[in-house]
Write a structure and sequence with these properties.
Elements: H1 3-16, H2 20-43, H3 52-72, H4 76-86, H5 98-115, H6 119-138, E1 144-153, H7 155-164, E2 169-178, E3 181-190, H8 196-202, E4 207-214
Antiparallel strand pairs: 1-3, 1-4, 2-3
Helix pairs in contact: 2-3, 2-5, 2-6, 3-5, 5-6
Length: 221
Amino acid sequence: MSTKDFFKNSVLEAFGQVDPAKIGLSLLVALAMGILIYCVYKRFFTGVVYSRSFAMTLVGMCVLTCMVTLAISTNVVISLGMVGALSIVRYRTAVKDPLDLLYLFWAITTGITAGAGMYALVALAAVVIVVMIAGFASHQDKARVYMMVIHYTGQATGDDIVRAFGRTKFTVKSKTMRGDKVEMAVEVFSDGVDMPYADAIRALDGVEDLTLIQYNGEYHG
């Protein structure tokens, strides 16, 4: 048998092995799991800015990965062609939150597993991951972290600012001095939404302005 006949027969055999019921079930499972991943990501998101487009990408990734797995599982020739086609694709989107990698790999592996017909493994893995994410989320530190940027004038005002924090835990991150004017960046740990120290600092003589931003340590330039 020539190489041409081998490839021709392999392709024909691949189309003969197509099972519409299995394809439909696998894609439905992948879609349902993608929606589940979307909901889990939305519920437990702790980053700076929630990206709805990224969450929707997780759903599409489940379905498309399942489709690729169904295609390459029918025949070795098709799998080699698919690998060659996908090898030219380059992804340059930066992942800003390390936890997003967990959701990306969850979506990819779910699509692969659903395409392979291992539905029980898909469900079991989903239960384990959801329980893990929910468990870590419930044990997170309840204290909120804020970055406070204060512009003031005079050394005495700086001492008054430090005293105004009282028992609130804080850390001075940086000071920029331009003549008598000072810009001070402070990391503040607050247990509640009430921040009386902010009003006390703003009322001090010599304080020009105050900026307060919630911070979780994941900002990227």
